[in-house]
Design goal:
The protein is α/β, with parallel strands linked by helices. Helices cover 38% and strands 22% of the residues. Bound molecules: nicotinamide-adenine-dinucleotide. The site of nicotinamide-adenine-dinucleotide has 31 residues, from helix 7 and helix 8.
Length: 497
């Protein structure tokens, strides 16, 4: 009998009010049942919000350096449990162990950054325009933050949101992806072990359309941070706009790597394999378009097809595996639909394009690394987020044309340029319309201490990571202290007296 996991609400691990559970199975082998997780309802969100309100009262008055100390201990615990958490993550999400170790490391980096931020969280002191008057700003916590996370970074993304939110003095309610509920359960255990007061954090498992929606619509949850698809984010944005909530959206991508004719092609080849097929293409920053200069196009495509054909598909927990399964059957069917679309639109399938054969793959959601060449700018394959191991190759004649193609999609997360030309590198940084541009590296590889996010339909202007996220999770308060002993009227007494 598989274990039944619980929500964490009001300081206790509790069963859902609905009495219902959903199954969490290993996407590499669906016979492996990891556990049953709460299929919660709106009543569980209500209980979590009430508790989080009490948690906020306590935590917001705890000095920021003391809050940082808790997060430092969280980082220490993640270091000591890195292997165990990575293994649990690969088991429920599918990406290879090297990547889930990286995912945990991102959580560790985020914890240690947050810990030291507790001793910064700077405001400003500013000269007043009036004599004997002091002017300053400082950062205050906001309240209860609702955090809604996707499946592809089961630990890192919850930490990107929860750690800065907590450091700033807020309480949090996490609604993790129903595809990866186990990893975040381990994270909450670690936060509690590190000494976070219980009512400061709540974990409510369940479906987006029920508990996710109830969280977004709850009037006492003033902040929503969402990472997921652009479609889901659009609906959340409407609700938050109507209710005047502070909202951070991190959504889809259609990221391009541009390879010029002077590029180091060995480096570019290694980069595109990692960018396109790492995490089975299920990264928001995955390289899903490869723009090749016409002079190197044919050579590069042939080497790439050869190398992609050699990638070893399999269980991410087995050594030697390069590419794991997709997260579930619907994702694999989506990939198949796009492969059909590519064929129908006349693109040339140069490798992959089907499910792998063999008993080893029969129980998982595997799909071969797939490359289409001859993809036209503006076609559906080139424009739409597939979120799987499908790379579209587009030929271009000039740097200007490559920039136009890169910018011609509705998303704007990351981009990359391979060249030896320093002038083109700087032009790329200025002209590629994305939140992140890499030079001589693939479209993936964000570091925890730099702001992360995209432009256009990828986001709504906020950033996760680095120093900027602390502004999202705190409110600026300005204070004036007039010690002149008389009424001083700003804009009037100092000019018209
Ligand atoms: P998804 O939109 O299906 O789900 C994300 C989360 O939203 C889940 O927890 C889900 O339960 C919840 N949800 C669904 N409907 C909801 C609703 N009506 N109200 C509230 N919550 C709801 O996304 P996914 O399939 O888990 O993740 C893949 C997507 O995430 C891709 O589009 C990818 O590009 C994007 N993503 C973006 C970033 C980024 O930082 N830009 C990072 C990772 C993933």
């Amino acid at each position: 009998m598989a274990k039944s996991f619980r929500n964490f609400i009001a300081g206790k691990w509790v069963a859902p009010s609905t009495g219902e559970y959903f199954e969490n199975r290993n996407p590499a082998d669906t016979r492996d049942l990891i556990g049953r997780f709460p299929d919660s309802g709106a009543a569980d969100i209500e209980a979590a919000v009430q508790s989080a309100g009490r948690g906020f009262g306590l935590w917001s008055r705890t000095p920021a350096p003391a809050r940082g100390d808790v997060l430092r201990r969280v980082g220490d615990l993640l270091v000591s449990r890195k292997e165990e958490v990575a293994d649990a993550m690969t088991r429920e999400m599918g990406k290879v162990l090297a990547e889930t170790r990286g995912d945990v490391q991102e959580g560790i980096d985020t914890a240690f950054y947050a810990a030291t931020e507790g001793r910064r969280l700077f405001g400003h002191t500013v000269p007043s325009e009036l004599p004997s008057k002091w002017a300053m700003s400082y950062r205050r916590p906001i309240g209860t933050c609702g955090l809604i996370t996707p499946f592809n970074f089961p630990l890192a993304i919850p930490t990107w949101k929860a750690f800065p939110a907590l450091l700033c003095g807020n309480s949090v309610i996490i609604k993790p992806s129903e595809d990866v509920p186990h990893t975040v359960t381990l994270l909450v255990e670690i936060l509690l072990e590190a000494g976070l007061p219980p009512e400061v954090i709540q974990l409510v498992h369940g479906r987006g359309e029920t508990v996710g929606k109830a969280l977004v619509e709850h009037p006492a949850v003033g902040v929503i941070s969402f990472t997921g698809s652009t479609e889901t984010g659009a609906g959340i944005g409407q609700t938050c706009g109507r209710m005047h909530k502070r909202l951070s959206l991190e959504m889809g991508g259609k990221n391009a790597m541009i390879v010029m004719d002077d590029a180091n092609l060995d480096l570019a080849l290694e980069g595109v394999l990692w960018g396109a097929f790492g995490t089975t293409g299920q990264r928001c920053t995955a390289t899903s378009r490869l723009l090749l200069h016409r002079r190197i196009h044919d050579r590069f495509v042939s080497r790439l097809a050869d190398a992609a054909g050699k990638l070893r598909l399999g269980d991410g927990r087995k050594s030697g595996t390069d590419v794991g399964p997709l997260i579930h059957e619907e994702s694999r069917m989506k990939v198949e639909r796009y492969v059909e679309i590519g064929r129908d639109q006349g693109a040339e399938l140069v490798t992959g394009g089907r499910r792998p054969a063999g008993a080893k793959y029969a129980r998982g959601f595997f799909y071969q690394p797939t490359i289409f060449a001859g993809v036209k700018a503006g076609s559906r394959l080139e424009q739409e987020e597939i979120f799987g191991p499908v790379l579209s190759v587009v030929r271009f004649n000039s740097f200007d044309e490559a920039v136009r193609i890169n910018n011609g999609v509705r998303y704007g997360l990351s981009s990359s340029l391979y060249t030896q030309d320093v002038n083109l590198s700087y032009r790329a940084m200025a002209e590629l319309d994305n939140g992140i541009t890499y030079i001589n590296a693939p479209t993936i590889g964000a570091e925890a201490h730099l702001p992360f996010g995209g432009v256009k339909q990828t986001g709504n202007g906020h950033r996760e990571g680095g120093w900027e996220v602390y502004e999202f999770y705190s409110e600026t308060k300005v204070c004036y202290v007039d010690y002149s002993g008389r009424l001083q009227r700003a804009q009037i007494d100092n000019y018209d007296a």
